[in-house]
Design brief:
7 strands; about 150 residues
């Protein structure tokens, strides 16, 4: 599985935005979170995230297939703010390898946090399989509840 993650270059933003929209379109239909959905993110906002935060592009055989947005929470704690893959690469076993690569980028990390939609049972199973524990939840709108996860490294 020839997967590589590299810090995002702003010229990759238009491709990443299209993949992000594709990856989250089903969630937008299900949860109707128009104000917070990655589908509705303008290119300017994505460019700002690339500039301000730790943003990676996911490559497979020299093709951009997704992106990762990581936030430094201080004290060696990090938030996986967003991870997305093109639909043609979803559910094919790429997730575990990508998460391993992300964690390897932060060898001093002591804790990771993330959240995922309450109805996305496949995500829950995946994150729990790789060591994340459910710690709570928070409501975004009438239809969307995000489940909060943490993974302690040390």
């Amino acid at each position: 599985m020839n997967i590589v993650i590299k810090r995002t270059n702003e010229i990759e933003a238009p491709i990443l935005l299209e993949i992000q929209k594709e990856a989250f379109e089903d969630d937008l239909r299900m949860y109707e979170d128009h104000n917070t959905s990655p589908v509705n993110e303008p290119i300017e906002r994505l460019l700002r995230k690339i500039e301000l935060f730790i943003h990676y592009t996911i490559w497979h055989n020299n093709e951009i297939i997704g992106g990762i947005d990581v936030r430094n929470l201080k004290d060696n704690k990090y938030r996986l703010n967003r991870i997305f893959l093109s639909k043609k690469y979803q559910n094919k076993g790429f997730g575990s390898e990508i998460m391993k690569l992300v964690e390897e980028e932060f060898p001093s990390a002591v804790e990771w946090v993330l959240d995922t939609p309450h109805l996305n049972i496949r995500n829950h199973h995946f994150y729990e399989k790789i060591g994340y524990k459910k710690i709570g939840q928070h409501q975004i709108n009438e239809k969307l509840i995000l489940i909060d996860y943490t993974k302690k490294i040390r």
